[in-house]
Design a protein that fits this description.
Layout lengths: L1 H25 L3 E7 L17 H8 L2 E3 L2 E2 L5 H10 L3 H4 L33 H6 L3 E5 L15 E2 L14 E6 L32 H30 L6 E7 L14 H4 L3 E4 L8 E3 L3 E2 L3 H9 L25 E5 L9 E5 L3 E6 L17 H11 L18 E5 L17 H18 L7 H9 L13 E5 L2 E5 L6 E7 L8 E3 L2 E3 L5 E3 L5 E3 L4 E2 L12 E7 L6 E6 L1
Length: 567
């Protein structure tokens, strides 16, 4: 009898254990992105001995450090469009910087402000997470080259945070840290945390006091950003979420100084990238695989257990749907930067970068009004105009530039020695030239069409403005209501409002991240929180008497349409 009871107890405990393990395995992991702006791997964990980044260094020691991660562009908006869609900007028409500048002086001649009309099937990937039950928050920058439908984020604002999610809901939360952005270099800081005498001056700059001060300023901002990273991590730990979450840290593209940002060289596209896995799995390891920013979207969906859409051009590198075959190449593009056009394409393998210049008659330097706000840019222009720039700094301003460039990046990190004419590298030149041509043939290149024609004729059909998404239909069925939209690729969001409610929201006490320094609990001053749009996913909607159904339908690049339906 005792043996029988013991066997039953053992059986019960075994079943309980396996049930627990099954639930643990099926639980969707939380995913946090900490995204800084405009830095190359100027991080202690990557060997920079001047800058102090203890929080990021600790995250790298508790996670996986990736050493060959690259963005598809050297500037934010095209790069961010690839991150949010899993598509190359040149293939979907988001390659020009930027499409919604507001001020016409930052647009191409005759080109209106526009939200890119990307292919109908392409979505911003957090929409797929929401359909799978995730709470998605973005704090706070978007800059995707298109206006995001209401279905992408549960919240996207300065107050956005995973802390506002429903109880026990898995979350995907993005925190964008602005302090390292190029614009933060325009005015000298009150205090430098890095001694200008200690910094390393790249060979493509003049070693002058103003150069050293600007580099020290950049590194100072990185140290401030590191403190912000530490505060986010500290709050995750306080909430008991750190151990069980994936935490990504990366930059949206490379360095913010002149002849860094906007370039598709190493210094414009190579970024720091760290992933901390749940329970410290793989802690302290390093991965040298080639990875592109176009791979981020499929990787997050793979981690979350969400089926990858077939249109993705990126490859998942983590999770059950990760690609077994590693990348042989990564690709990048440069097109209009603010008011000036250039067209450059690049391919990089593990050692070499090949660049093709479609407009060799133009210099590498673009005389952009925005960038002239930076002290170092003003100094470089003065030295160039007075013939005081020595090579290789002077090369930036020379025209024409070569049609083709080839660099041994592993041995020439600053990419100053063009190997195109060296017969020793003719086979590598031929290989990478063909790889670039194959990529363009595979994914397409929207810059074969003038931007003005792409927008006004191809996307807007000569109407002078973006098309409007068809209004959604509310169809009554025996079990409730279903929604449909005739516009191909439209995302449908809806809200059920109670009697007396409206879309303006109401005041609530919520957790928030203020976008600069710290988490805080809003106690004495509630903030206005808008109702959350639900993602429609073919479900049947039930309405009670007095409730109002508000439906927003939008294809990306089109104007949204809104309807209200009362039972």
């Amino acid at each position: 009898l005792n043996n029988s009871k013991e066997m039953k107890n053992i059986l019960f405990l075994s079943l309980f254990f396996w049930f627990y393990m099954l639930n643990a395995q099926e639980k969707s992991p939380n995913i946090v992105w900490i995204v800084c702006e405009d830095i190359s791997p100027f991080i202690g964990a990557y060997g920079d001995s001047i800058v102090s980044t203890p929080n990021i260094d600790r995250l790298a020691s508790e996670g996986v450090k990736y050493t060959r991660v690259f963005t598809v562009a050297g500037v934010c908006a095209p790069s961010r469009s690839s991150i949010i869609t899993g598509m190359y900007p040149t293939s979907i028409g988001t390659q020009h910087m930027r499409t919604t500048a507001g001020d016409p002086k930052y647009m191409g001649e005759g080109v209106p402000n526009y939200s890119a009309v990307i292919p109908a099937e392409v979505k911003a990937f957090p929409e797929f997470l929401r359909k799978a039950g995730y709470y998605t928050s973005n704090n706070e920058k978007e800059d995707y080259q298109f206006d995001a439908p209401v279905t992408v984020w549960d919240e996207s604002s300065a107050a956005a945070s995973y802390t506002n999610r429903p109880e026990n809901a898995p979350f995907f939360s993005v925190y964008n840290l602005f302090v390292t952005h190029e614009s933060q270099m325009f005015v000298p800081p009150d205090t430098l945390l890095v001694d200008p005498a200690d910094v390393r001056v790249p060979a493509f700059y003049e070693d002058a006091p103003i150069t050293r001060r600007n580099i020290a300023h950049l590194l100072t901002n990185i140290q401030i950003m590191d403190e912000q990273v530490g505060e986010i991590i500290s709050h995750l730990k306080k909430e008991g979420l750190y151990e069980d979450s994936y935490i990504f840290f990366y930059s949206d593209h490379g360095g913010n100084l002149p002849w860094m940002k906007r370039e598709i060289l190493e210094r414009g596209t190579h970024i720091p990238f760290v992933v901390k896995h749940p329970q410290g799995k793989y802690a302290g390891t390093t991965v040298s695989d080639l990875i592109s920013s176009v791979d981020f979207a499929p990787t997050v969906l793979s981690i979350a257990g969400v089926e990858l859409p077939s249109y993705f051009q990126g490859k998942a590198f983590l999770g059950e749907q990760s690609e077994k075959e590693k990348r042989s190449y990564i690709f990048a593009a440069r097109d209009r930067m603010d008011e000036l056009y250039d067209r450059v394409r690049a391919v990089r393998d593990t050692q070499f970068r090949y660049i093709y210049n479609y407009m060799p008659e133009k210099s590498r330097y673009q005389d952009l009004s925005y960038r002239k706000n930076m002290p170092l840019m003003k100094e470089l222009l003065f030295l160039n105009e007075t013939d005081q720039l020595d090579p290789p700094a002077a090369e930036w301003f020379k025209s024409p530039k070569p049609v083709e460039e080839l660099y041994d990046v592993e041995n020439d990190r600053e990419e100053l020695k063009n190997l195109v004419m060296d017969p020793q590298y003719k086979n590598k030149l031929k290989e990478l030239r063909q790889a670039l041509q194959n990529w363009i043939k595979e994914v397409g290149d929207m810059s074969e069409i003038p931007e003005k024609e792409m927008v006004l004729d191809l996307w807007w059909n000569g109407q002078g403005k973006a098309p409007t998404t068809d209004k959604a239909e509310v169809i009554e069925t025996p079990g409730g209501y279903i929604l449909q939209c005739a516009t191909e690729g439209a995302s449908i969001g809806y809200i059920i409002l109670q009697d007396g409610q409206d879309l303006k929201g109401s005041e609530k006490k919520v957790h928030t991240w203020d976008g600069r320094r710290y988490f805080t609990d809003i106690q004495s001053k509630p903030i206005k929180v808008e109702p959350v749009w639900q993602v429609y996913d073919d479900e049947v909607i039930s309405l009670k008497k007095g409730e109002k159904l508000v439906v927003n339908a939008m294809r990306i690049g089109y104007q949204a349409s809104l309807i209200e339906f009362n039972k």
